[in-house]
Amino acid sequence: MHKALYIGLMTGTSLDAADVAIINFHNKTPKIVAAKNYPIPTELKAQIKQLCLPGHNEIDLMGEVSVQLGQLYANAVTSLLAEQQISAHHIKAIGSHGQTIRHRPDARYPFTLQIGDPNIISAQTGITTVADFRRKDMALGGQGAPLTPAFHDALLKDRSESQWVLNIGGIANLSYLSKNKNAPILGFDTGPGNTLMDQWYQQHHDGAFDQNGEWAASGTASQPLLDALKSEPYFKRAAPKSTGRELFNLIWLEQKLAACPHLSNQNVQATLLELTATSIATAVQTQKDAKTVWLCGGGTHNQALVARLKQLLSGLKIEDTSALGIHPDWIEAAAFAWLAKQALDGQAGNIPSVTGADKSAILGIICPP
Fold first, then answer.
1. Which residue from 61, 54, 59, 9 is spatially nearest to 35, judged by alpha carbons?
2. Is the predicted pLDDT of residue 162 greater than 60, yes or no?
């Protein structure tokens, strides 16, 4: 069993916490041994947000924050192992996504940048760490994202019907898995998941997010604002495509709001929820044979958002991934543990039909302890 233990590390666009999950890959279905969120200190979170926004950022700040984040990850791993009384020697590897501070797949010279130094993680935990998963795919002409569809395919490899997996993190992304195993797997970012709702909420309230979507539910979506938001060319682009906070941020929102003055704050929040829901639903409706949508990510807890998705997709079964044996909060961390396993096993981690890469490839840089 011990040879099958891996750790997945993840901080997403929402910047809510570092997710750490110990995964057992001994059996056909991955099993979560233990998982926990570790808060990101307020000052560090502010520095990461500063690095995420377009601008002339200090290289010194990036270097220092990368080390601090690497230390936070290492401490989180050490803490969880101690709580579970599991020796570091029993962990085959850590798969660390890191924190994306820039993702520019459509730049003249495409690049992506994740921080959270894996050398720090491997040195302080004594565990082989695999990280920097996205750049190899991008070097091969791909978007570098999304990478989770390969894991979703492995998780649902015995499927008898076509299905979607919907991850609602800061950005929402979809994986389409056809019942025809020879059909190409599809995957792409639909647009904002929680990120705009979270950022708007934080600007007007104390707290990190709109609990259960209650603030959004107290408002009414504005069609003129929704139309202005949906005029963003990203929504009309065909896959492969990926996006992030570089595009969907408060600066972008304020520009759109300029054409729709005098809206109440809660009506703006309601419109942001509608943007997330309708952009997801439009994408799901492109594949008429899919019967099920599996939900994962933090947005699964937004009851107003999930209720709206069920209205828009009333003909489909919508259920969270707990029924597949993995709690929706830990799917992404499990995916990066799996990507670490793929790298050590010499197996590809990307899907060219998803990312647009020229070929499949082993992903990640391996940092021995």
1. 9
2. yes
